[in-house]
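Before the break, one more example. Copy the sequence into your notebook; we will annotate it together after we see the structure.
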Amino acid sequence: MSINTHRRSLIKGMGTLPFVGALAALHAREALAAGTTTTRVASPYGPIAPVNDLTTGLPLLQLPAGFTYKSYGWTGDLMANSKPTPAKHDGMGVIATRKLGRSTEFVLVRNHEVGTGSDATFFGAPGVYDNALSTAGGSSYSGGGNTNLTFRDGNWIKTEPSLGGTRTNCAGGVTPWGTWLSCEEVGSDSVSAGGKKHGYVFEVTADPLQTTGQPIVGMGRFAHEAAGVDPATGIVYLTEDSGGKSGFYRYVPVNPTGAPGSLAQGGTLQMAKVVGQNNVSVIGALVGDTHALEWVNIADPDANRGTATGVGGTNTISNTAGPFRQGWAQGALRMNRGEGVWYFEGKLYVMDTSGGPVSQGTIWELDLATQVMKCIYASPSANVGTMGDNITVSPRGGILICEDGSAVVDEFGMGLRLMSLHDDGKVSIFAKNNINVTAAQLTAAGKLASLADDHRDNEFCGACFDPTGRYLFVNIQTPGVTFAITGPWAKGSL
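Here is what the structure looks like once it is written out:
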C-alpha cells in the first residue's frame, strides 16, 4: 500500500478534524501580509529542556514536556547484513505501511550524504550504481547511498542497505506509489574513473532487493537536492543546490500513472520561469511575494556544465549545470540554494536555504493547480531561523523546518533546531540538538567511541511523520543518528 493511500484511508477513519485543521492552516497562510519577514514566538508546546533518550539514556535532544524519543541506526551500528551503518544521515521518508497481524509496521528510506570513501563493498547494498574508483589511480569509491529502516509498534526493528555506489545523496522525496527518490547533490561533471557520471536521481523501493541502482537520466544531471510528486498529475518537482545559480525544475513523465520504475520510462525536464518576465531572481524574497510560473523545456537534461547567458545576451553566470544553462537562456528564474521540498494537499512547499533579506532562508508555497508560488517564510536573522534545509508537513498541516546554519545560541543554549512554522506565519522552537557526548558515554551505550564530540552545531535533516501523525522521524547528520519522537502533538500545529 502506498503512503498516500494509507493516509487517505486513515483520515477517513478518523473523521474530518485533521482535514479541517489542514484547510485552516492553508487559508491562514494565504492571508499573510505582503512585504514582511518572519518573527519568532513562544511555542504552543511550551519551553524545551534536555530529555533522556529511551534507548541510550543520554540527553541527546531538547524537547517540550511530555515528548519522548528513541534513537536508532547510529553510524557504525551493525545492520541486518552485519555491516556497519554508513555515516552522514540526511533526507528520509516513510514510503510503506504494512499490517502484520495486530501490528503496524513502517518502512523508511534514509539517505547517506557520503561522497567518496574506501569501502568498495558499498555496505552490501543490492542496488549498486558505480563500482569504479572515484578517480584514476586513486583508492576511493562512490560511498553514498541509502538504507531502509523498519519501525513497528513504536520500536525500531532493523536496518537494511538498499542503494550503493552513489555520491552525496542529500535529500529526495516520497512518491505516491510507495518509493523514495534519492538525489545526488554533486556537480554535473562528476565522473568516476570507470566513466560513470554522477548528479542523478535514483528510485529506492521498500523491498531493497527491488532497487535497481539505475539513474533516471531524464530527470537531469545537476546538484539535486529534493523532490516532490504531485499525485494528481505524476509530475515531479525538483530543487537544485548550487549557490546563486539554482534552478527550480519539474519532470513530466510519459507514464503519469505511477509505479516503481515508471519515471525511468522517460519524460520531459522543464525549468520554472516567471510569466512575462525573463531571468527573474527570487533570492531576496519577502513574505507575500508572489509569482505566476510557466515552464520551459530542457532539451538535453544530461548536458555538461558551462556558462549560462540570459535572454538578450545578458545576465551571464559562469560554471552552471547543463540544465540550468539551457533554462536560463530561455528566461528561467533562479533561487539561491534550493533545498527541501514537501507535497501536502495540493500545495508544494519549497525551501531556499539561503534566500531572503539576509540569506537565512525562505519558503515558497506553490499552488499546483494555479502554478502560482507565494513566499510564506523569510527569516530576518539566525535567531528566527538559520538556513532551513529539509522540511516536512505533518498530517495536521503543520510545517517543520530542519536548520542547517551556524549553531544558534538562544534562551535554551547552543545548538541547531527544529522550527515549527505556524499558520499565522510565525515560527517557534520545537526541538534542539543536544548531542555533546564523551567516549565513555558512547562506549557504555554500545556506540562507537570515535563519535564522541560536541555535535550541537550539526544539522537536523530527514524530518518526516508517519501517516498517523503519531511519530516524527528525524536525523542528526553527524554523528549520524535517527530518532523517533512522539508526544502531545495536539497542543500545537504539528
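The CA atoms of residues 419 and 429 lie 5 Å apart. The chain is about 10% helix and 40% strand. Try to locate both features in your own notes.
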